[in-house]
Amino acid sequence: MNVGDKAPEVLGMDENGRQVRLEDYRGRKVVLYFYPKDNTSGCTAEACSLRDNYEALKAKGYEVVGVSIDSAASHQKFIAKNELPFTLIADTDKTLVGKMGVWGEKSMCGRKYMGTFRTTFILNEEGVIEKVFSPKEIKTKTHGEQILSL
């Protein structure tokens, strides 16, 4: 998905098993961020940066929604451990990562595997993509500040 595209209406199921829809956020901008895995160093740093900047983001009209392919139970633990104030979507069937184009082949230490590319989409009040932070652009420890500087 690219700037100007509309995000899918159904985003998925959250950590409590509730369906999350784009219309739930109508009238607010959405930070829709995709990350590889709960409780890994980079993903925890990114989530905590968004947590630490959450009130400032909300004051600028943003709502934060995280997405990974981890289970709802994993998300619940991740939220509790890091006191995250925002929704995490459990995209266990890889529907949203596929639709958004953030699922693909990755490599680490010469090993190839399928995974989620760390990507953040900034959606406007109508759910249209205004900005995309690519994996190379995202600084996990200061991602909240990166978004606030837009």
Verbal overview:
The protein has 150 residues and is α/β, with parallel strands linked by helices. The chain has a single domain, classed as Glutaredoxin (3-Layer(aba) Sandwich), CATH 3.40.30.10. The protein is built from 5 helices and 9 strands; from the N terminus they run βββααβαβαββββα. Strands 5-4-3-8-9 form a 5-stranded mixed beta sheet. The radius of gyration is 14 Å and the shape is globular. It starts with 9 loop residues before the first strand and ends with a helix.
Compile the SSE list and pairings:
Layout: E1 10-13, E2 19-21, E3 29-34, H1 41-52, H2 54-59, E4 62-68, H3 72-82, E5 87-90, H4 95-100, E6 103-108, E7 111-116, E8 119-123, E9 129-133, H5 143-148
Parallel strand pairs: 3-4, 4-5
Antiparallel strand pairs: 1-2, 3-8, 6-7, 8-9
Task: Give a quick rundown of the structure.
With 150 residues, the protein is an alpha/beta fold. The chain has helices at 41-52, 54-59, 72-82, 95-100, 143-148; strands at 10-13, 19-21, 29-34, 62-68, 87-90, 103-108, 111-116, 119-123, 129-133.
Which key features would you list for this structure?
single chain; 9 strands; alpha/beta; five-stranded mixed sheet; 150 residues; Glutaredoxin; 5 helices
